[in-house]
Amino acid sequence: MGNVCGRATAITVLTPIRPWLVRLSRLGFVLPRKIPWMTQALRKLSFIHFARWSIIDRIPYNGLPQRPERPRYTYLFFESNFNGTWDDYIDSFSYVMPGRMRLTWGSSYGFPGAKPVGPFKDYIVRNEFEADHFYSAYPEATATMVLSALEVERRFELLRARADGATPGQLAAEWRAFLHDAQRHL
Amino acid sequence: MSNDVAGQSYALTVLTPVLAGHEIALRAHLRKLPTAGDSPLARVPRTHFARWVIVPQPAYQGPPMRPDPWKSQYLFFTSCFDGDLPSYLDDLCRLIGPDVDAVWQHCVGYPGSSDPAAFARYISHNRIPTEVYFAAYPDATVEDVRASLALKDRIVRFALATRGMGDSDLHRAWQEEFGR
Predict the structure, then answer these.
(1) Is residue A28 part of a domain?
(2) Which of A152, A166, B27, B92 suits B120 as a labelling partner, its CA being 20 to 30 A distant?
(3) Does ipTM come in above 0.90?
(4) Does B48 contact A126 at a Cβ distance shorter than 8 Å?
(5) Entry pTM
(6) pLDDT over 80 (residue A147)
(7) Which helix (H) or strand (E) holds A17?
(8) Backbone phi and psi for residue B147, each to the nearest 5 degrees, phi listed first
Protein backbone atom coordinates (compact mmCIF):
# COMPACT_ATOMS: atom_id res chain seq x y z
CA MET A 1 0.00 0.00 0.00
CA GLY A 2 1.94 3.01 -1.27
CA ASN A 3 -0.53 5.44 0.28
CA VAL A 4 0.11 4.37 3.87
CA CYS A 5 2.96 5.14 6.26
CA GLY A 6 2.18 4.02 9.81
CA ARG A 7 -1.06 5.78 10.74
CA ALA A 8 -0.68 8.34 7.98
CA THR A 9 -2.51 8.07 4.65
CA ALA A 10 -1.80 9.96 1.43
CA ILE A 11 -4.38 11.00 -1.11
CA THR A 12 -3.42 12.51 -4.48
CA VAL A 13 -6.12 13.68 -6.89
CA LEU A 14 -5.86 15.30 -10.33
CA THR A 15 -8.98 16.56 -12.14
CA PRO A 16 -9.56 18.54 -15.36
CA ILE A 17 -11.29 21.89 -14.91
CA ARG A 18 -14.02 23.01 -17.32
CA PRO A 19 -12.33 25.75 -19.36
CA TRP A 20 -14.98 28.41 -18.77
CA LEU A 21 -14.80 27.78 -15.02
CA VAL A 22 -11.03 28.11 -14.57
CA ARG A 23 -11.40 31.71 -13.41
CA LEU A 24 -14.15 30.77 -11.01
CA SER A 25 -12.01 27.95 -9.73
CA ARG A 26 -9.15 30.34 -9.02
CA LEU A 27 -11.60 32.62 -7.26
CA GLY A 28 -12.65 29.64 -5.20
CA PHE A 29 -9.10 29.58 -3.86
CA VAL A 30 -8.79 33.30 -3.31
CA LEU A 31 -11.70 33.23 -0.90
CA PRO A 32 -10.27 30.73 1.63
CA ARG A 33 -7.02 32.67 1.61
CA LYS A 34 -8.86 35.89 2.44
CA ILE A 35 -11.48 34.51 4.76
CA PRO A 36 -9.86 32.46 7.54
CA TRP A 37 -13.06 30.75 8.62
CA MET A 38 -13.10 28.77 5.40
CA THR A 39 -9.84 27.05 6.25
CA GLN A 40 -10.98 26.88 9.86
CA ALA A 41 -13.46 24.32 8.59
CA LEU A 42 -10.49 22.15 7.64
CA ARG A 43 -9.11 22.60 11.13
CA LYS A 44 -12.33 21.05 12.44
CA LEU A 45 -11.44 17.94 10.47
CA SER A 46 -8.89 17.18 13.13
CA PHE A 47 -7.31 14.25 11.29
CA ILE A 48 -5.58 16.31 8.58
CA HIS A 49 -1.89 17.12 9.07
CA PHE A 50 -1.27 18.98 5.80
CA ALA A 51 -3.26 19.49 2.60
CA ARG A 52 -2.80 21.56 -0.54
CA TRP A 53 -4.47 22.57 -3.78
CA SER A 54 -2.63 23.67 -6.92
CA ILE A 55 -3.75 24.63 -10.40
CA ILE A 56 -1.72 23.20 -13.28
CA ASP A 57 -2.22 25.45 -16.29
CA ARG A 58 1.00 24.58 -18.12
CA ILE A 59 3.49 21.75 -18.07
CA PRO A 60 7.09 22.98 -17.99
CA TYR A 61 9.26 21.99 -20.95
CA ASN A 62 12.69 20.53 -20.26
CA GLY A 63 13.99 20.09 -23.80
CA LEU A 64 14.28 16.90 -25.82
CA PRO A 65 13.41 14.06 -25.54
CA GLN A 66 10.37 15.54 -23.75
CA ARG A 67 7.67 16.31 -26.30
CA PRO A 68 6.19 19.73 -25.57
CA GLU A 69 2.83 19.38 -23.83
CA ARG A 70 -0.12 21.55 -24.75
CA PRO A 71 -2.81 20.20 -22.45
CA ARG A 72 -6.29 21.02 -23.61
CA TYR A 73 -7.40 21.57 -20.03
CA THR A 74 -6.22 23.18 -16.83
CA TYR A 75 -5.95 20.65 -14.00
CA LEU A 76 -6.66 20.82 -10.31
CA PHE A 77 -4.15 19.03 -8.09
CA PHE A 78 -5.10 18.07 -4.55
CA GLU A 79 -3.16 16.22 -1.92
CA SER A 80 -3.75 15.45 1.72
CA ASN A 81 -1.74 13.87 4.52
CA PHE A 82 -4.15 12.54 7.11
CA ASN A 83 -4.66 9.76 9.61
CA GLY A 84 -7.43 7.20 9.53
CA THR A 85 -9.00 5.38 6.64
CA TRP A 86 -9.69 6.67 3.17
CA ASP A 87 -13.42 5.96 3.61
CA ASP A 88 -13.73 7.95 6.82
CA TYR A 89 -11.80 10.79 5.22
CA ILE A 90 -14.09 11.13 2.21
CA ASP A 91 -17.17 10.65 4.42
CA SER A 92 -16.06 13.56 6.60
CA PHE A 93 -15.48 15.85 3.66
CA SER A 94 -18.86 14.93 2.29
CA TYR A 95 -20.78 15.43 5.54
CA VAL A 96 -18.89 18.27 7.21
CA MET A 97 -18.19 20.58 4.29
CA PRO A 98 -20.13 19.68 1.12
CA GLY A 99 -20.26 23.37 0.15
CA ARG A 100 -16.49 23.68 0.31
CA MET A 101 -16.17 20.54 -1.82
CA ARG A 102 -18.50 22.01 -4.41
CA LEU A 103 -16.46 25.21 -4.45
CA THR A 104 -13.30 23.13 -4.93
CA TRP A 105 -14.31 20.47 -7.43
CA GLY A 106 -17.53 21.94 -8.80
CA SER A 107 -15.59 23.40 -11.71
CA SER A 108 -14.03 20.02 -12.62
CA TYR A 109 -15.49 17.69 -15.22
CA GLY A 110 -17.45 14.78 -13.85
CA PHE A 111 -17.87 16.08 -10.29
CA PRO A 112 -21.14 14.57 -9.07
CA GLY A 113 -21.47 16.73 -5.91
CA ALA A 114 -20.22 15.84 -2.44
CA LYS A 115 -23.57 14.30 -1.46
CA PRO A 116 -24.59 11.53 -1.63
CA VAL A 117 -21.19 10.20 -0.71
CA GLY A 118 -21.24 7.10 -2.96
CA PRO A 119 -20.83 8.86 -6.32
CA PHE A 120 -18.38 11.32 -4.71
CA LYS A 121 -16.19 8.39 -3.62
CA ASP A 122 -16.37 6.86 -7.10
CA TYR A 123 -15.27 10.20 -8.51
CA ILE A 124 -12.24 10.44 -6.21
CA VAL A 125 -11.29 6.82 -6.92
CA ARG A 126 -11.39 7.50 -10.67
CA ASN A 127 -9.12 10.52 -10.36
CA GLU A 128 -6.66 9.60 -7.65
CA PHE A 129 -3.15 8.20 -8.04
CA GLU A 130 -1.47 5.87 -5.61
CA ALA A 131 1.78 7.17 -4.16
CA ASP A 132 4.83 5.18 -5.23
CA HIS A 133 6.64 6.32 -2.10
CA PHE A 134 5.06 8.10 0.86
CA TYR A 135 6.99 9.39 3.86
CA SER A 136 5.94 10.69 7.26
CA ALA A 137 8.46 11.92 9.85
CA TYR A 138 6.23 10.73 12.72
CA PRO A 139 4.11 7.95 11.23
CA GLU A 140 2.64 6.76 14.52
CA ALA A 141 1.30 10.19 15.55
CA THR A 142 -2.17 11.29 14.49
CA ALA A 143 -2.78 14.98 13.82
CA THR A 144 -4.76 15.15 17.07
CA MET A 145 -1.86 13.61 18.99
CA VAL A 146 0.50 16.24 17.57
CA LEU A 147 -1.84 19.14 18.38
CA SER A 148 -2.42 17.78 21.89
CA ALA A 149 1.29 17.31 22.53
CA LEU A 150 2.03 20.87 21.42
CA GLU A 151 -0.70 22.17 23.74
CA VAL A 152 0.58 20.07 26.66
CA GLU A 153 4.06 21.40 26.07
CA ARG A 154 2.84 25.00 26.09
CA ARG A 155 1.04 24.51 29.40
CA PHE A 156 3.90 22.51 30.86
CA GLU A 157 6.39 25.29 30.21
CA LEU A 158 4.16 27.64 32.23
CA LEU A 159 4.01 25.08 35.02
CA ARG A 160 7.76 24.65 34.94
CA ALA A 161 8.30 28.39 35.28
CA ARG A 162 5.95 28.52 38.28
CA ALA A 163 7.56 25.44 39.84
CA ASP A 164 10.95 27.13 40.09
CA GLY A 165 11.53 27.80 43.78
CA ALA A 166 8.03 26.62 44.78
CA THR A 167 7.50 24.92 48.15
CA PRO A 168 6.35 21.26 48.07
CA GLY A 169 2.81 22.41 48.86
CA GLN A 170 2.82 25.04 46.09
CA LEU A 171 4.30 22.62 43.58
CA ALA A 172 1.75 19.92 44.40
CA ALA A 173 -1.10 22.41 43.94
CA GLU A 174 0.34 23.65 40.63
CA TRP A 175 0.90 20.08 39.39
CA ARG A 176 -2.64 19.01 40.22
CA ALA A 177 -4.06 22.10 38.55
CA PHE A 178 -1.92 21.36 35.47
CA LEU A 179 -3.12 17.75 35.34
CA HIS A 180 -6.71 18.87 35.69
CA ASP A 181 -6.41 21.44 32.88
CA ALA A 182 -4.29 19.30 30.57
CA GLN A 183 -5.90 15.91 31.10
CA ARG A 184 -7.97 15.98 27.94
CA HIS A 185 -4.73 16.42 25.97
CA LEU A 186 -2.81 13.65 27.75
CA MET B 1 2.66 36.31 1.44
CA SER B 2 3.28 33.34 -0.80
CA ASN B 3 0.55 30.71 -0.99
CA ASP B 4 3.28 28.07 -0.70
CA VAL B 5 3.86 29.04 2.92
CA ALA B 6 1.83 28.48 6.09
CA GLY B 7 3.59 29.66 9.26
CA GLN B 8 7.14 28.37 8.89
CA SER B 9 6.01 25.45 6.74
CA TYR B 10 6.51 25.26 2.95
CA ALA B 11 4.50 23.25 0.39
CA LEU B 12 6.60 22.14 -2.58
CA THR B 13 4.99 20.55 -5.65
CA VAL B 14 7.17 19.45 -8.58
CA LEU B 15 6.13 17.86 -11.85
CA THR B 16 8.87 16.33 -14.04
CA PRO B 17 8.55 14.33 -17.28
CA VAL B 18 9.61 10.68 -17.04
CA LEU B 19 11.99 9.57 -19.80
CA ALA B 20 10.14 7.37 -22.29
CA GLY B 21 10.89 3.74 -21.50
CA HIS B 22 11.93 4.46 -17.90
CA GLU B 23 8.44 4.37 -16.38
CA ILE B 24 8.59 0.78 -15.15
CA ALA B 25 12.11 1.09 -13.76
CA LEU B 26 11.24 4.32 -11.93
CA ARG B 27 8.12 2.85 -10.40
CA ALA B 28 9.98 -0.30 -9.36
CA HIS B 29 12.71 1.79 -7.76
CA LEU B 30 10.26 3.98 -5.79
CA ARG B 31 8.21 1.01 -4.65
CA LYS B 32 11.18 -0.81 -3.23
CA LEU B 33 12.55 2.17 -1.28
CA PRO B 34 12.59 1.52 2.47
CA THR B 35 9.79 3.35 4.26
CA ALA B 36 9.20 5.49 7.38
CA GLY B 37 12.40 5.95 9.41
CA ASP B 38 14.44 4.06 6.79
CA SER B 39 13.24 6.18 3.87
CA PRO B 40 15.95 8.36 2.36
CA LEU B 41 13.67 11.31 3.15
CA ALA B 42 14.16 10.59 6.86
CA ARG B 43 17.71 11.83 6.38
CA VAL B 44 16.35 15.27 5.50
CA PRO B 45 15.04 15.96 8.99
CA ARG B 46 13.05 19.08 8.02
CA THR B 47 10.60 16.92 6.03
CA HIS B 48 7.21 16.38 7.73
CA PHE B 49 5.52 14.53 4.84
CA ALA B 50 6.60 13.85 1.27
CA ARG B 51 5.65 11.62 -1.64
CA TRP B 52 6.63 10.61 -5.14
CA VAL B 53 3.71 9.72 -7.41
CA ILE B 54 3.91 8.68 -11.06
CA VAL B 55 0.94 9.95 -13.05
CA PRO B 56 0.68 7.99 -16.33
CA GLN B 57 -2.31 10.00 -17.60
CA PRO B 58 -5.01 12.16 -16.05
CA ALA B 59 -8.31 10.29 -16.03
CA TYR B 60 -10.72 10.88 -18.89
CA GLN B 61 -14.16 11.88 -17.57
CA GLY B 62 -16.23 11.14 -20.67
CA PRO B 63 -18.19 13.73 -22.69
CA PRO B 64 -18.51 16.70 -22.69
CA MET B 65 -14.82 16.55 -21.78
CA ARG B 66 -12.67 15.91 -24.82
CA PRO B 67 -9.82 13.42 -24.49
CA ASP B 68 -6.64 15.15 -23.35
CA PRO B 69 -3.83 12.61 -23.50
CA TRP B 70 -0.46 13.78 -22.19
CA LYS B 71 2.59 12.92 -24.25
CA SER B 72 4.73 11.81 -21.29
CA GLN B 73 4.18 10.22 -17.94
CA TYR B 74 4.97 12.62 -15.10
CA LEU B 75 6.60 12.23 -11.73
CA PHE B 76 5.02 14.34 -8.99
CA PHE B 77 7.11 15.11 -5.94
CA THR B 78 5.51 16.93 -3.06
CA SER B 79 6.93 17.81 0.33
CA CYS B 80 5.74 19.65 3.46
CA PHE B 81 8.90 20.88 5.12
CA ASP B 82 10.30 23.45 7.55
CA GLY B 83 11.84 26.69 6.36
CA ASP B 84 12.60 28.09 2.92
CA LEU B 85 12.86 26.37 -0.46
CA PRO B 86 16.48 27.19 -1.48
CA SER B 87 17.99 25.74 1.69
CA TYR B 88 15.71 22.69 1.46
CA LEU B 89 16.84 21.95 -2.09
CA ASP B 90 20.39 22.37 -0.88
CA ASP B 91 19.68 19.83 1.90
CA LEU B 92 18.31 17.34 -0.64
CA CYS B 93 21.60 17.55 -2.59
CA ARG B 94 23.87 17.59 0.45
CA LEU B 95 22.14 14.95 2.59
CA ILE B 96 20.62 12.48 0.11
CA GLY B 97 22.18 13.40 -3.24
CA PRO B 98 22.66 9.81 -4.47
CA ASP B 99 19.09 8.95 -3.42
CA VAL B 100 17.48 11.85 -5.30
CA ASP B 101 19.70 11.08 -8.30
CA ALA B 102 18.46 7.47 -8.27
CA VAL B 103 14.90 8.84 -8.63
CA TRP B 104 15.21 11.84 -10.93
CA GLN B 105 17.77 10.24 -13.26
CA HIS B 106 14.64 8.73 -14.85
CA CYS B 107 13.35 12.21 -15.76
CA VAL B 108 14.07 14.39 -18.79
CA GLY B 109 16.70 17.09 -18.28
CA TYR B 110 17.73 16.13 -14.76
CA PRO B 111 21.16 17.66 -14.11
CA GLY B 112 22.14 15.60 -11.02
CA SER B 113 22.69 16.70 -7.44
CA SER B 114 26.44 17.16 -7.69
CA ASP B 115 25.71 20.67 -8.97
CA PRO B 116 23.25 22.01 -6.33
CA ALA B 117 22.67 25.24 -8.30
CA ALA B 118 21.63 23.27 -11.40
CA PHE B 119 19.47 20.98 -9.25
CA ALA B 120 17.73 24.01 -7.72
CA ARG B 121 17.13 25.49 -11.19
CA TYR B 122 15.66 22.20 -12.40
CA ILE B 123 13.28 21.85 -9.45
CA SER B 124 12.28 25.52 -9.61
CA HIS B 125 11.64 25.28 -13.36
CA ASN B 126 9.28 22.34 -12.80
CA ARG B 127 7.64 23.62 -9.64
CA ILE B 128 3.88 24.13 -9.51
CA PRO B 129 2.82 27.01 -7.25
CA THR B 130 0.35 26.30 -4.48
CA GLU B 131 -3.11 27.86 -4.44
CA VAL B 132 -4.08 26.95 -0.89
CA TYR B 133 -1.89 25.28 1.72
CA PHE B 134 -3.40 23.97 4.92
CA ALA B 135 -1.16 23.03 7.84
CA ALA B 136 -2.73 21.92 11.13
CA TYR B 137 0.32 23.08 13.11
CA PRO B 138 2.10 25.53 10.79
CA ASP B 139 4.53 26.89 13.38
CA ALA B 140 5.84 23.56 14.66
CA THR B 141 8.98 22.14 13.04
CA VAL B 142 9.55 18.39 12.79
CA GLU B 143 11.88 18.74 15.76
CA ASP B 144 9.20 20.61 17.74
CA VAL B 145 6.63 17.91 16.96
CA ARG B 146 8.92 15.09 18.02
CA ALA B 147 10.04 16.92 21.17
CA SER B 148 6.46 17.65 22.24
CA LEU B 149 5.37 14.02 21.64
CA ALA B 150 8.32 12.81 23.74
CA LEU B 151 7.58 15.34 26.49
CA LYS B 152 3.94 14.31 26.62
CA ASP B 153 4.98 10.66 27.12
CA ARG B 154 7.37 11.73 29.85
CA ILE B 155 4.65 13.72 31.62
CA VAL B 156 2.24 10.80 31.46
CA ARG B 157 4.86 8.44 32.91
CA PHE B 158 5.61 10.94 35.68
CA ALA B 159 1.91 11.38 36.46
CA LEU B 160 1.44 7.62 36.76
CA ALA B 161 4.57 7.15 38.87
CA THR B 162 3.66 9.93 41.31
CA ARG B 163 -0.02 9.16 41.67
CA GLY B 164 -1.05 9.30 45.33
CA MET B 165 2.30 10.69 46.52
CA GLY B 166 2.45 13.20 49.35
CA ASP B 167 3.63 16.74 48.65
CA SER B 168 7.25 16.23 49.77
CA ASP B 169 7.74 13.02 47.78
CA LEU B 170 6.15 14.64 44.75
CA HIS B 171 8.45 17.65 45.12
CA ARG B 172 11.50 15.38 45.30
CA ALA B 173 10.37 13.34 42.28
CA TRP B 174 9.70 16.57 40.34
CA GLN B 175 13.18 17.90 41.10
CA GLU B 176 14.71 14.64 39.89
CA GLU B 177 12.68 14.51 36.70
CA PHE B 178 12.14 18.13 35.73
CA GLY B 179 14.28 20.23 38.09
CA ARG B 180 16.81 22.57 36.48
Answers:
(1) yes
(2) B27
(3) yes
(4) no
(5) 0.94
(6) yes
(7) strand A8-17
(8) -65, -40
